Amino acid sequence: MANRLISSSDPQRTGVVLIAIVVCLAALQFAQNIAAPMTLAVVTGVIVAPLMDFFDRLKIPVGYAAMIIMVATILGLGVLVLALEPLFWRVTAEIPKIRLELQSLIYDMRSMLRGLDDMSSEVQKALGGDADATASTEKAADTALPTVSDALFLAPVILGQVLVFAGTFYFFLLTRLEVYSALAKRIGGVAQSASIQQRFKTAESLVSRYFVTISIINMGLGMSLAGVLMLIGLPLFWVWGMAAFMLNYVLYVGPGLMAVGLLLSGLINFDGLMVGAPFAAYVCLNMLEAQFVTPSLVGKHVSLNALLVFVALVFGLWFWGPIGGIVSIPVMVIAAALLDDKVVKRVNTVQSG
């Protein structure tokens, strides 16, 4: 009788859990303007949490330490945005030239394949197709650029997200130990509260060191790219280096955007074979970083399945847009650090040693 009750309750429990997950995801999607910056703030707080411990050892009050870290973080992000602003306006100003270059390339390709086009037209006529419909599909559609009114409309939303991020970030740093304690008691009860709380601290340390390592790697990639582009003679080489540093945090998508951007920049600034020089330089540096540098350094901290990383990144971009792409990998690293007993034991051994 008991076995029958258990077997009948398990599918019900599974169904309830699945429904709860769907409802939570729908709520997070609906409230993404609030939930996304809050999640980003918590992830950022976990990454910079060791600074709170450092300030605590210096006997600095928790409130002052949290305020210092929050102001420094927001100022740093602001400096990065301002540094990338010239690149944005330059790309915007060069869009007509980029369009002309692309149209020229397309025209050259059409002239090379004109024989195939004529053959296709003959086949369509023989089959009774409409050649005018085919010709109409070749007309390029103009892409509308964002206007000043669009920017003014988005400004309150962006400002609100910045305020949500700042408030969540500050109060998480202020109360993170209390949050860990409450979650530990909720998960394991009073008996296992201490061990679970220690697991949170260990995962926090692991994630922080992981992203410090990633930041150093990205900084090296950005500086190397800036140096190569300076030798090539590409304008705003330091802005491209900073863009490579920032976009490399968003796996797959960031390097892809950099490659496309440098290819377009080569079309604008160079002629002949030099058109592909910026693109080729970045691809070579990125392959060197992805195949040798990152596995040798990051693999010592935590290893992630490549397919799982890609799925998490795609889901994050679909779910929350750019913020989702930024937080998807950190959230997965935090989850891996919390759930992997071998990783936690290895980090504890290193810390004790």
List the topology elements:
Layout: H1 2-30, H2 32-57, H3 62-93, H4 95-112, H5 114-126, H6 131-136, H7 148-188, H8 193-232, H9 237-247, H10 253-269, H11 277-298, H12 306-320, H13 322-339, H14 341-352
Shape: globular
Main β-sheet: number of strands, strand sense, barrel status? none
What's the total number of strands? 0
Specify the helix fraction band: over 70%
Strand share of the residues?
under 5%
The whole-angstrom Rg is 26 Å
Task: Name some characteristics of this structure.
14 helices, disordered C terminus, disordered N terminus, mainly alpha, 353 residues
3D structure, described in words:
This protein is mostly helical and 353 residues long. It has one domain. The chain has 14 helices and no strands. Helix 7 packs antiparallel against helix 8 (193-232).
Summarize the model shown.
This protein has helices at 2-30, 32-57, 62-93, 95-112, 114-126, 131-136, 148-188, 193-232, 237-247, 253-269, 277-298, 306-320, 322-339, 341-352. With 353 residues, the chain is mostly helical.
